[in-house]
Amino acid sequence: MTTPQGELLPTTRRALTHRIAVAQAEGRTPSLVAAVVRGGRAVWHGARTSVDGHGPDENVQYRIGSITKTFTAVLVLRLRDEGVLDLGDPLEKHLPGTGAGEATIAELLAHSGGLAAESPAPWWERTPGSLRPELADVLGKQPLLHPVGRRHHYSNPGYTLLGALVEKLRGASWEEVLQREVLDPLGLRRTGTRPSAPHAGGWAVHPWADVMLAEPVEDLGRMAPAGQLWSTTGDLARFAVFLTLGDDQVLGADTVREMRAPAAPAEAADVVDGAAYGLGLQIQHRDGRLLVGHSGSLPGFLANLTIGVEDDVAAVVLTNCTSGPLLAGVGADLVRIVAEAEPRIPEPWRPLREADSSVLELTGQWYWGTHAFALRLTPDGGVSLGPLSGQGRRSRFRANGDGSWTGLEGYYAGESLRAVRRPDGTVSHLDLGSFVFTRQPYDEGASVPGGVDPEGWRGIG
What we know:
By secondary structure, the chain is an alpha+beta fold. It is 27% helix and 22% strand. The chain contains 13 helices and 19 strands. The protein has helices at 10-27, 67-81, 91-94, 105-109, 135-139, 156-170, 174-186, 224-227, 233-245, 253-259, 268-273, 327-341, 357-360; strands at residues 31-38, 41-49, 62-63, 203-205, 212-214, 230-231, 275-277, 282-286, 289-298, 301-308, 313-319, 364-368, 371-377, 383-387, 395-399, 404-407, 416-421, 427-432, 435-438. It has an 8-stranded antiparallel beta barrel. It has a 7-stranded antiparallel β-sheet with strand order 2-1-11-10-9-8-7, sandwiched between helices. Helix 1 packs antiparallel against helix 12 (327-341). The longest helix is centred in the N-terminal third of the chain and has 18 residues, at 10-27. It starts with 9 loop residues before the first helix and ends in a 23-residue tail after the last strand. Mean pLDDT is 94; it is low at 1-5.
């Protein structure tokens, strides 16, 4: 029996259904709806509900809470890509007078701007936004609790500031800009700031009895950029594809890759947990794989978007309860189930169309001191350098067009790699940010810093 390309095997589908069934039953949530994405499209939808005959599907809206922050981050990065701002700019440069203007835009995106986690009382998630009409009402009298840039401290008011920044620079409301620049281009027709039928109602489930209490639905006003949105598993599946591949109508692949990179100082507990934060995206190392995405919660709702970029699998999970199933774990499990049951099939190997002979001669084994490294051509026209065996510093390098390369990751990110040639044109050594790589360990014919002992290699007599 064969399975059409892109579809999941029956055993995989059953395992996914079992996982969300356990989550809904043990988490005691009125309903739970999920989707899995692979190969650029949704390949599975599942739902569990306590109401017979009324199971939600991929078009039923749920409130997604802080996943809204990822949408706001996309708007800010569009401004950066257009040259309107720089992520290193202090907020004060573009939005003066907030009292929190020394934080940079990048620090606000990464929750390292030193701001408080919440706005002043009463609790903003369960009260109308009209109680906080101005930024000063959101920030309070003492916006900064920590030194700017020194620690990751999750801040809802920080994303209120970013939403206000978007409004100031675009000359339109955050909602209008989001609709025009993200929702419409990506075709997210069931995502918006207010519920549109069919949508789930939000509930609180009693901790000690199987009874429920309806939660209020508030318009968050100024706090909207931090958590206002409603969406569906269908729309968030499409959003996951965008966060994986990019879309030139919104943000290119390089920028969404930048969003997925750690951008905030990690505390010791975060290091132990394998958690980090990028530019509007949460990052987690779990089950041996790197996952990115975001969770969200508002009274009556929980939401999670998890992407395993290397596995080409993403999961969306939405519920309508205030507390219950731990959706980050559910999302990670859905990714794991598919990745392990049906591993990603790599693209066929294909030879390069052409290779520069002057670069080809550089490939092969090199030594940094006595450490053996290998230099390889990469399919994109660059090179990679890494240890011949075991762990160590490694990086891909982008060709600059002048015979040099720039590191793209790790220790060598941003560092320059070039081949140093002798007067006769032969290669003496590689220079990588002042490190000398030679064809033989401490090659006496190359320019090794400190020179080479003229007695050469020897044993102990």
